[in-house]
Amino acid sequence: MRKIALIVAGGRGLRMGAEVPKQFIALAGKPVLMWTTECFTKFDPEVELVLVLPADQFEVWKALCQEYNFKLPVRLVEGGATRFQSVKNGLDSISGEGIVFIHDGVRPLVSKATLENCFNSAMEQGNALPVFSVVESLRKVTTSGSQHIDRNQFRLVQTPQTFVVSGIQKAYQQPESDFFTDDASVYEAAGNTICLVDGNQENIKITTPVDLKIAEMFLKTEC
Q1: 27-71, pLDDT tens digit by residue?
Q2: What angle do CA 137, 140, 144 make, to 5 degrees?
Q3: What are the extents of the domains in the chain?
Q4: Which of 34, 65, 77, 202 is the 20 to 30 Å CA partner of 57?
Q5: 194 exposed, middle or buried (CB, 10 Å; 0-12, 13-18, 19+)?
Q6: According to the model, what pLDDT value does residue 220 have?
Q7: CA angle at residue 71 from 44 to 90, to 5 degrees?
Q8: Could you say which residues are annotated as the site Transition state stabilizer (predicted)?
Q9: Inter-axis angle of helices 32-43 and 112-125, to 10 degrees?
């Protein structure tokens, strides 16, 4: 089955406090976004790479590819004003059927096992949502204070959220809603059932300088 990695990287890096968007920050010798992209080609060298970026970052990406001699064939798509619109633009650029992995550009540590879990579930069930268990205690804030809740009833959600192309394209025909926090919520709102699969805990989303240090530690360990 054809595989497409739809990598969404529209962040401006405000919480990172950096002068460049967080997807372009150097991590263990090259930009975060290059590490992220390579996760998919290591999983399957034939995967199609679609990168959704703000239009004003296209030239930045091309310059970085030259600087770091990065030659993977990536098709650029212009993002929208919101993540929903950016993903929709990316999906609209895909013709034909296949399995699409919708992934955050600043998650450079997704494992091959997670990608295999996602692909197999999407082939069998039409979709896959990688998650892992909550290990910290949780409390729910109430009007009267807070209360303990059972962490075993909850899972932390990751990407790539993975779908049969036609199914997720149809779901993204819905009007945008504040309720949609990820692709699974869009797909579920269209009447579909979400299938959970095991993710990998180190598949963190790089948002703060601390996240960058953690990711660098993991990458150096792998090397």
Answers
A1: 999 999 999 999 999 999 999 999 999 999 999 999 999 999 999
A2: 135
A3: 3-222
A4: 202
A5: middle
A6: 81
A7: 65
A8: 15, 22
A9: 60
CA dihedral over 116, 117, 122, 127, signed as positive or negative: negative
Structure tokens at 60: 């930045």
| pTM confidence score | 0.95
The type of residue at 167 is G
**How many angstroms separate the CA atoms of 166 and 107, rounded?**
25
Alpha-carbon span 179 to 124, nearest angstrom: 27
For residue 113, the one-letter residue type is A
Give the bridge partners for 196, in sequence order.
129
Cα–Cα nearest to 134, from 114, 151, 147: 151
Per CATH, the homologous superfamily of domain 3-222 is: Spore Coat Polysaccharide Biosynthesis Protein SpsA; Chain A (3.90.550.10)
Q: Encoding tokens for residue 4? A: 């497409």
Q: In 3D, which of 113, 79, 69 has the Cα closest to residue 9?
A: 79
Proportion of the chain above pLDDT 90, given as a percent: 92
pLDDT tens, position by position, 107-153? 999 999 999 999 999 999 999 999 999 999 999 999 999 999 999 99
